[in-house]
From TrEMBL:
<dbReference type="InterPro" id="IPR001731">
    <property type="entry name" value="ALAD"/>
</dbReference>
<comment type="subunit">
    <text>Homooctamer.</text>
</comment>
<keyword id="KW-0460">Magnesium</keyword>
<dbReference type="GO" id="GO:0005829">
    <property type="term" value="C:cytosol"/>
</dbReference>
<dbReference type="GO" id="GO:0008270">
    <property type="term" value="F:zinc ion binding"/>
</dbReference>
<dbReference type="Pfam" id="PF00490">
    <property type="entry name" value="ALAD"/>
</dbReference>
<comment type="similarity">
    <text>Belongs to the ALAD family.</text>
</comment>
<keyword id="KW-0479">Metal-binding</keyword>
<keyword id="KW-0350">Heme biosynthesis</keyword>
<keyword id="KW-0456">Lyase</keyword>
<dbReference type="InterPro" id="IPR030656">
    <property type="entry name" value="ALAD_AS"/>
</dbReference>
<feature type="active site" description="Schiff-base intermediate with substrate">
    <location>
        <position position="207"/>
    </location>
</feature>
<comment type="pathway">
    <text>Porphyrin-containing compound metabolism; protoporphyrin-IX biosynthesis; coproporphyrinogen-III from 5-aminolevulinate: step 1/4.</text>
</comment>
<protein>
    <recommendedName>
        <fullName>Delta-aminolevulinic acid dehydratase</fullName>
        <ecNumber>4.2.1.24</ecNumber>
    </recommendedName>
</protein>
<keyword id="KW-0627">Porphyrin biosynthesis</keyword>
<feature type="binding site">
    <location>
        <position position="245"/>
    </location>
    <ligand>
        <name>Mg(2+)</name>
    </ligand>
</feature>
<dbReference type="GO" id="GO:0004655">
    <property type="term" value="F:porphobilinogen synthase activity"/>
</dbReference>
Amino acid sequence: MNDPVFLNIKKENMNIRPRRNRKNAAIRAMVEETQLGPQHLIYPLFLKDGKNIREEVASLPGNYRWSIDQLLPEFEKWMNLGIMTFDLFPAVDEHLKDQIGSYSYADENFYLHSIRTLKEKFPEAVLMSDVALDPYSSDGHDGLVVDGKIVNDPTLDILGRMSVAQAQAGIDIIGPSDMMDGRVGFIRDELDAAGFQDVSIMSYTAKYASAFYGPFRDALNSAPKSGDKKTYQMNPANKREALIEAELDIAEGADFIMVKPALCYLDIIHLLKENFATPVTAYNVSGECAMVYAAAKNGWLDYDRAVMEMLLSIRRAGADGILTYFAPDAARMMK
Ligand code: PBG
């Protein structure tokens, strides 16, 4: 972006009145700087094995753990609203979890079967996955836990297998959310070696150790069993470190770089947008959405206006795409 042109405002220039460009809807629309449409939205969904399941996530009202049969008719409605991209997360039964997350790439994994079904029914939809150990791990961490430590390189092999299994099922975009070092390059190599050059990678590039993931961890029952995620997720105090992460991810082959969460990190979105040509996405995470649901329910906020202002601000900061639980409501408001 070019530097803004500053007016050298003096007392004799006081005939300049910015309000003239806000005086009616047509002029406001003409000078509007940021666009927000359904094409910018990515809707995160929670999948569950079984039939006839539609369990509401208490802290994210209006969002459910879906079995595939219940999901299909809804999927069509969302697509009719113009939402084309969906990020899928598995809610895995506790008895299928182990220390190495082996269910994540097992043939019988319902999540892989659901991807296959969705791709068959909606070939024009863009399906994005989650690649991390936590929903499958009995330790609830994104990497392997060895002697109480989250180890990096031994985790990569499982992330690679998971990615190839998802690509075989028909996923369009792989979403590594684990923050292990070197995983984008490792996954890229594994995908290419298996013949999946066209499968994209949206890297969780600057993912912070945030308090705002609570409702998501409730939805998947994926909270760490001990410790926290501070040895792999970023310190909320850090900004320049996001540049290192972005440079590495791009060099390793990321097609999109993501900032997560979005609202407390608008400066990071802006920073990556200004410094890199790779498209930037932002994850408007569960806790950020839960705050609005709760306040609106109490009558403390106007839900529609708050949602649109948040999404617009994330776009204004520089996000090309936004992952948000508000996607269907927002798309409805845009109609
Ligand atoms: C896990 C993962 C998390 C989210 C997406 N992928 C949670 C975490 O890192 O603990 C959070 C999404 C949200 O809060 O909406 N790899």
